[in-house]
Each structure stands twice: as C-alpha cells, then as structure tokens.
Amino acid sequence: MSRAVLAVLLVLIGVAPCTAELAGTEVTVPLSVKGMLGERTVNLAATEYRPAGAGPFPAIVLSHGSPNSAADRVGDTAKYPVASEVFVTWGFVVLNPVRRGYGKTGVDRDRIVLVGQSAGGWESLAAASEADLPIRGVINFAGGRGGKQGGIANNNCAPDRLVAAAGTLGKRTKVPTLWLYTTNDQFFAPELSRRMSEAYSTGTASST
C-alpha cells in the first residue's frame, strides 16, 4: 500500500461523512475468556460492513481507540462507517468490534450488586474488595472455601485461614454486604460463619 493511499485512509477514519453513512449490520463476536472460575465465552458487540455478493471476501478488523476518561467508554460506539466504506469498496468485509468495557450495555454502571453462593459468594466479596468496579453491595449466600473436606460435614481444610482472609477482605471493602448462612449448613457451620462475619466486620466494611 502506497503512502498516499495510507494517508487518505487515516484522514477518512477521522472525518465525518458528508453523505449517507454506509449501513452496517449489528453482530456478535464470541470471545473465550479464562478466569479464576474457568473458561467462558462472552459475546462482543460489533458492526459488520459487507460488499454486495456472496463472497468469500477478505476481511479487515478495524479496532477503536481508548478515550482519556474511563467514563467516556460507555458512549464509545466503535463505528467507522467512512473508513469501512472505503475498504468495502475495495472488496473487503469490515468488522468494527466493541472491546470489553466499552459501549452501551443497558446497565446502570453505578448500581451494580454482586450476588454469589458458596465459592461464588466468596469471590463476590473478593471482587468488591478490589475497589476497581462501581459495586454498590454484595449478597453472600453461604460463601467460603474448603468446606466439607472428604465428604465430612463441617470439615473445613483451613478454618483459621478462612477467618483471617475474611478479615483482610473486610478491611479492603468499602461497600455494605449481606451474609446469609443456615444453621444446618454442612460446609460452613454456624460457629465458623459467625467467626468469618465478625472478622470481616472488624474492617471498614459493613456486613449484616
């Protein structure tokens, strides 16, 4: 590609169209994500622009930038109809994906509550302690780790470590939490869950 053509493309990417925008199709792109709870698939929103005809066509993935403010990511549409039209004219399929954390989700990001059961409850408490998400609170249903070892009721592999970890999470968490455990819980007996809650409450967080 010549420098002249490249310069034209760079200009087109940043210039608003003076004619009707090329119509795109809203699609989703599956993405495999590995995390502490295993691998899962999330669907990224994207806009696809296609030439006329059945193809097959060569493809271009046109990726968006990153605004200076994280709050501006919500309004980032990640659509480049002008530049995409140039590539479509040349016979390319163009995909404008919206990366994770960008675009409109239909979710009020200032009103998020984490809810989890067992290991999920414990991980919800851990996630809230990171303070990197606008979490309003956590509902913890019988959260913990290492319960019922060897299939023996209320046999926890490291109860003291679990209590100590609860204290650490409590010191780091700034949002209220609701803890729900039962008296017949076979993974975390009332005595252990009470110790965990008390250790958590000694921090700056508020647990009920």
Put the structure in a nutshell:
The protein has 208 residues and is α/β, with parallel strands linked by helices. The protein is built from 5 helices and 8 strands, in the order H-E-E-E-H-E-E-H-E-H-E-H-E.
3D structure, described in words:
It is a single chain. Helix 4 (159-172) packs parallel to helix 5 (190-201). The radius of gyration is 25 Å and the shape is elongated. Helices cover 28% and strands 25% of the residues. Strands 1-2-4-3 form a 4-stranded mixed sheet. Strands 5-6-7-8 form a 4-stranded parallel sheet. The protein has 5 helices and 8 strands; from the N terminus they run αβββαββαβαβαβ. The termini are far apart. The chain has 2 domains: 20-97, no CATH class; 112-207, no CATH class. The protein has helices at residues 3-14, 81-89, 119-129, 159-172, 190-201, and strands at residues 25-35, 38-49, 59-61, 93-97, 112-117, 135-141, 176-180, 206-207. It is an alpha/beta fold and 208 residues long.
